[in-house]
Amino acid sequence: MTAVQIVEVGPRDGFQNIGPFIPTETKIAVIRDLAAAGLKRMEITSFVSPRAIPQLADAGEVLAEVLAQGHVVPQVLVPNARYGLKAITAGAEFLSYVISVSESHSRSNVRATPDEALADYARLVAEAPDGLRLRFNLATAFHCPFEGVTPANAVLDLLERALEICPDAEICLCDTTGRGEPAQVAELFRAAMARFPSVSAWAMHAHDTYGHGTANVRAAYDQGVRVFDSAIGGLGGCPYAPGASGNVATEDVVSLFRDCGVETGVDLAALAPIAAFVQALPGATCG
């Protein structure tokens, strides 16, 4: 079976909900240990308002240190063009931009409608330097905590407009609440891939809030997805999606693919002590 790339999002998605501030040097040490375990691409932080997410107020310091060490390909989440340009100025070369398909979640998350957020994305793309790598995340692609099941057509229509702005972006469908189910995941990826065959890389961001995480990962893999987000120890959850606790755990995803005979390049045994450490951090939460 074809190898996959696991994107470790624990240092961003996993840490962002933790109240007590994690020392910057601790964050760097966790990233270094994850890299030693074979995780070579990570979403290390987010450039975002420190008032909204105080835990990530040291984004610039984390990025600078990770770039200096050169252990991983560092991916940085940004909520809008303003913070995207700040990240670029700080040295970021790989941005992950997120837009919610659901208007209710979009207003809660970034205080903008999807249309407004898409216009802001266009501004970022227009002002970005040559060579910048981009991922486009569609949050609430399967379910919204305020509106329920997300219509597939709404996802596909928003994606079409995003691809008109940046045809080369990696595309990630996000199960923000963890309510997506394997059949829904398979159907949406199948429809998206059929409608947009020019997309070169598809990704899946799964949460395990209702125990569907690894099953949804496998459903996406069976449709041809080869990039998967996960968080060490199952940490995290969207702060603007009530009840959406817990990303799918990196160790569970690595175990799933190992049992299926799929290469990840990650040492499963090396993940156990890292998972135990992050789960023991004051204020840590998981699914």
From TrEMBL:
**What name does the UniProt record give this protein?**
Hydroxymethylglutaryl-CoA lyase
The record, for Gene3D superfamilies, names:
Aldolase class I
Give the UniProt record's GO annotations in the biological process aspect.
ketone body biosynthetic process; L-leucine catabolic process
Q: Which PROSITE patterns match?
A: PYR_CT (PS50991)
Q: Which UniProt keywords apply?
A: Lyase, Metal-binding
Pfam families reported for this sequence = HMGL-like
Recorded hits in InterPro entries, A to Z, give: Aldolase_TIM (IPR013785), HMGL (IPR043594), PYR_CT (IPR000891)
This enzyme's EC code(s) = 4.1.3.4
Q: Which residues cross the membrane?
A: none
Q: Which organism is it from?
A: Actibacterium naphthalenivorans
Q: Which residues form the Pyruvate carboxyltransferase domain?
A: 4-272
Q: Which family does it belong to?
A: Belongs to the HMG-CoA lyase family.
Q: Which domain of life is it from?
A: Bacteria
